[in-house]
Amino acid sequence: MPLGLYVHWPYCARICPYCDFNVYRDRDRDTAPLLDAMLADLQAWRERVGPRPLRSVHFGGGTPSLMAPGQIEAILEAAASLCGFEPGAEIGLEANPAEMERFEGLAGAGIERLSLGVQALDDESLTRLGRDHGARRALEALERAQALFTRVSIDLIYARQGQSLEDWSAELTRALGFGLDHLSLYQLTIEPGTAFARKVARGQLVPAEDDLAAQMYELTQSLTAAHGLDGYEVSNHARTQADRSAHNTLYWTGADWIGIGPGAHSRYGAPALGGRIGAAAERRPEAYIAGIAEGQAQTFEALSALEDAQERVLMGLRLKEGLDLDRLRALTGHGIDRRAAEGFAEDGLVTLDAGRVTLTPAGRLYADGIAAALAPA
Question: Which PANTHER family match (predicted)?
Fold first, then answer.
C-alpha cells in the first residue's frame, strides 16, 4: 500500500472567511518548538508504520509558504532518513501569492510542486474572499512559480456572490490561457462556523443558487476539457496522468498516509491491530507540542470494516475512474448498495461496468449524495 506524509502548518497571516480548516493567526510566533514537535512526531510515526518509503510529502495548512526554508529542509531530511522516498516522489506545498518572495527559498528547500491559492482573478472578488493579495500580485506570483517549480497548480473558487455564468466563463478561460497542467476549481461552500456562515445567517451574504452553481460546474468541465485538461476528480483537472496530484490521489484511492502537525489526520493499515487505523493529532498548537512531549499528541481509533468501506466509497467515487468493487470487497468485505446503484444507473447518474461503479457527468453534480446512498450500511 503506498504511503504519503501530510505536514500541517497551522498558521496564517490572515484567516479567510470561508475557511474551516484548523488554522491560527501567525502573530510573529516562535515556531521552533512546533518544528521540534513535528520532527518528534515523524519519528514516532516511523516506529508505528515501519520502514516504508514515501510516495509523496504534502505541506498544507494554514499557510505553509510562511515556513522558513530551513524548517522545510529539516522535515524533508528527517523524512528521507526515517522513511526514504519512492523514485519520483512528489514533494508539494500550498502557497499564498502574498509570499512570492519566499518561493526561491521554497524551491531550494526541495519543493517541486506548488499549489498556488489564487482563488480569483479580480481585486473586488479577492477582497470579498478576504484574501491578502490582489490580482496583479497573483499573476506575478504565478509567473515566478512557473519559473522556479517543476509543477505548478492554481486554485480558483467559483459560484461567488454576484458572479454570473458569463463572469466565470471569462475568468476560467483566462486562467486556462496560462498554460498550466493542473487546476483545482472549487465551488464556494458555506461551511458551518466560518465568518461566511455568520454573514449568511445575517443576510449579508447570499450564496449562488443551486441551478447557477450547477451550470458553472458543467461549464467548468466543458471548458477544461476543450483546453486539454481532464477532469480526473470532481474538482481537479490535469493535462496528463503524470500531472495529477499524487498526494491527493492517495486519499481518493484509500491508500495510507501519516500526518504531522496540529490537527493532522492519518489513515494506515495495521493488520496486527485488527485492520485500518485512524489517527487525529491535538488541534491547538500548544496542546500538540505538549502532547508530543508526553507521548499523547495523537488519538487513535480502529476503523471497523464497515467504516473503512464507507470512507472508500465516499472518496473513490470522486475519481473519473470510479470505484473498483472487487478491490473494495477484498479490502473491507463489503460491497455497495447494488439496488441503489442500479437505480442511479437507470437515471443516467452512474455506470456499472466490469466490477466498477463510475459517476457520469450528470452524476458528478450529486457526488456526495450518491456516495452516501451507495455506501454499505
Answer: COPROPORPHYRINIGEN III OXIDASE, RADICAL S-ADENOSYL METHIONINE DOMAIN-CONTAINING PROTEIN 1, MITOCHONDRIAL
